[in-house]
Design goal:
The protein has 2 domains: 2-42; 51-168, Glutaredoxin, CATH 3.40.30. Helix content is 49%, strand content 14%. A 5-stranded mixed β-sheet has the order 1-3-2-4-5. By secondary structure, it is an alpha/beta fold. The termini are far apart. It contains 6 helices and 5 strands; from the N terminus they run ααβαβαβαββα. InterPro entries: Thioredoxin-like_sf (IPR036249), Thioredoxin_CS (IPR017937), Thioredoxin_domain (IPR013766). One of its GO terms (biological process) is cell redox homeostasis. One of its GO terms (molecular function) is protein-disulfide reductase activity. Residues 39-168 form the Thioredoxin domain.
């Protein structure tokens, strides 16, 4: 009897865990609605939450950073100063941990380095183009040369070191 109860309890726990992960990964309509409401309220009161980091989409990226349709086999940077692309998701814990550190770097290097965020749930095409398999994935883009890619939460020191590295590549 103990064995049966233990097996049933474990099965129920497994099912609850699996359904919770699936809802986050697939972007359920409740998540989408909540995200849309949060976006709408953030847009309604921009002065309440001024950010040095800009949230971008595929159209902005193609026009201002990299036109992946025009240059599908080679990264051709279109920016006027080094940039940082943060590929993230709202439900990702390490992404939420990284966000204030990138915000601080964006403020510190305002006018010298542009910092952008790309939500992989909303911009699946960009996640695919850049080969994002794990988040947070951060791409540090120098004016010339090869971008530097990192995966996972970074310390403020790691962000500083990588910014210094891409700034030298000018």
């Amino acid at each position: 009897m103990k064995k049966i109860l233990l097996t049933l309890g474990f099965s129920a726990l497994s099912l609850m865990t699996a359904s919770a992960c699936t809802a986050k990964a697939s972007g359920s309509s409740a998540d989408t609605q909540t995200t849309a409401e949060a976006t709408a309220s953030a847009e309604a009161a921009p002065e309440a939450k001024a950010s040095a980091v800009r949230h971008i989409d595929a159209a902005f990226l193609r026009a201002n950073i990299y036109d992946y349709k025009e240059h599908p086999n080679k990264f051709v940077f279109k920016g006027s100063r080094p940039a940082i692309l943060d590929f993230y998701a709202d439900w990702c814990g390490p992404c939420r941990s990284l966000s204030p550190k990138l915000e601080a770097a964006a403020k510190k290097y305002a006018g010298k380095v542009d910092v952008y965020k790309i939500n992989v749930d909303n911009e699946a095409e960009l996640a695919n183009i850049f080969g994002v398999r794990s988040i947070p994935m951060v791409l540090f883009i120098p004016m010339q040369g090869t971008p530097v890619q990192t995966v996972g939460d970074l310390t403020a020191e790691q962000i500083e070191e990588t910014i210094a590295q891409i700034y030298k590549a000018k």
